[in-house]
Amino acid sequence: MSSGAERPTWTSHLRRQVASMPPEKLLPDTQPVYVASWIYVFGALTIGAFIVVLLSGAVIAMAGPSWWHHSSFGHFINSTHLWSTEFFFAFMVIHLWGKFFMAAWRGRRRLTWVTGAVAFLISIPIAFTGYLSQQNFDSQWIGGQAKDGINATGAGAFFNVLNFGQMLLWHAVLLPLFVGLLIAGHVILVRRRGVVPPLPGKGGA
Amino acid sequence: MALLAALINLDGRPHYVQSGWFQISLANLIVVLVMIAVFALAVTLKFPGHEEPVAQEEVAGDE
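Predict the joint structure of the above. Result:
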């Protein structure tokens, strides 16, 4: 049943939010002139690297723990996972530098900045739990060292770096889910608010 | 890759750069310097194929 005045329910709110983002706004064909700059490329490169991280991680997860040490294909996928992560962080940090010096939180874009910054911060424990999930002496040594630091914070009771199953699930499920949702929200906010323009020049352009 | 491995001994002890309390591995220092160089190039280099301004209004040609 429909009525002229929408009741303030969560479904009507969600419907309005979805209606405010039609496909042509979500996937635009053109961008403002100032976007034709290399510094605007690094956000998309970060997402590209993140997709490679997820795909290579999915292959690793499907084959089960430690197989990547015992086959050439496993070595290849393991290296792909490592290097896509390296590129993910490098692209993300260059993107962050560019947006910081551009003061990208201007023009009601504070939430866009915050979602990006939080996604970066959560990506760091994803990498750390990845080191703990390597299934080799390196991960054992890192776990042994990290436990003292984590215990010193008081978090060791519920975040046990020596618990491989717990670390693997944080690394492969929970944290990537948070970051994936944050990146999706970040992109929607970029589409909603638009790409931030460069700072005005000395001439007040 | 084998050539690269032959050029750089990946099995040796890592090299560190230290200045007072600050210490960083040479590998990490190189990565940071390359990132700064890429950032500087991204800011200064001209984006190819966009000499002419892309006007958003030009796209709406159906009406």
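Chain A touches chain B through 17 residues (CB under 8 Å).
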